[in-house]
Amino acid sequence: MDLTLLRTFVAVHRAGSFTRAAALLGLSQPAVTSQIRSLERQLGRPLFLRRARGVTPTTIGDELAHRAAPHLDALVEITETGLGERTGVGTLHVAGPPEFTAARVLPALTPLVAQGLAVRSSLLSDAEEILDGLAAGHHDLAVTVARPRGELFTATPLWDEEHVLVAAPRWAAKLSPGVLPRTGAVVLEQLPVVEVHESLPFVTRYWAAVFDSAPATAATVIAPDLRAVRESAASGAGLAVLPRYLCEEELARGRLVALLDPPVPPLRTYFLVVRTGTLALPHIARAHEWLLRVAGDW
User: Fold this and answer.
1) 206 CB contacts (<8 Å, ≥6 apart)?
2) Containing H/E element for 248?
């Protein structure tokens, strides 16, 4: 069987589209279509079902991808990095949320960079966009708060992020001692809110976990980056819900004050995700193992 046909097949399987696969491979869409048809004729079985938007693999297509993709990836790794001393050294394409990737993931990879690993990062806020890029082969490893389903991905819990309700000291001073545990949701809804989106994703999650209710308020300031939310809240724009790792320094310096200390703080889990089979590639396996190891100290 022609390895070129298998390589094209795996690209289509991951991209879910002949057009996207053609762009990734540097081929024309008719050339990709022709190669897939040739492979289907050789096997005597259909590999994809054509849909209005892209293609869906048949059960035979899924089986072939599961069996062939890791070996093809390993061959690509050999041709890119060579043999001997360069084993495990290559370029790692990693994707994840901007704030967490910048503050935790990229610094954690520094020791591997010192050993010869090259890193290319994509900072993306949307979990679906991250997983789509991973499926299409744009990324080798992804960090996301959404646990993917299906056999295409292998996801491992990486770290639990604690969320903290914070505000500048002047807002905290306006709250009577002990009032929040009793009527917190009502009182806090009288304060301005800083958030990343109009839907109040962080505040809504906090309210549900701590007050067992939905917030009856709207945001005063919207900033689609948690670092901007942190700075706005510290300057006095209003209360915010932030990951503790992102506001620890501001809390220590007194620029922000934690308004509440619930018995069970709200948590959000990050997952380390790869395409199933790609942990056979040394540089991906090394980065994957290293991140899981160092995350225990975060």
Assistant:
1) 163, 165, 241, 266
2) helix 244-253
pTM over 0.85: no
CA distance 254 to 234: 9
What single string gives the DSSP state of each residue in 81-120?
Answer: H-SGGGTT-SEEEEEE-HHHIIIIIHHHTHHHHHTT-EEE
CA 240/CA 4 separation, integer angstroms:
53
Q: Of the candidates 140, 167, 33, which has an alpha carbon nearest to the alpha carbon of residue 77?
A: 140
Return per-residue pLDDT of the chain as tens, 298 residues.
Answer: 678 899 899 889 988 889 888 877 778 889 899 999 999 999 999 999 988 878 999 999 999 988 888 888 777 666 655 544 444 468 899 999 999 999 999 999 999 999 999 999 999 999 999 998 888 788 999 999 999 987 788 999 999 999 999 999 999 988 876 667 666 677 788 899 999 999 999 999 999 999 888 998 899 999 999 999 999 999 999 999 999 999 999 999 999 999 998 988 999 999 999 988 888 788 899 999 999 999 999 9
Tokens 């048809």 belong to which residue? 37
d(CA 187, CA 287): 46
Alpha-carbon gap, residue 273 to 95, rounded angstroms: 10
Q: Which residues pair with 153 in a beta bridge?
A: 275
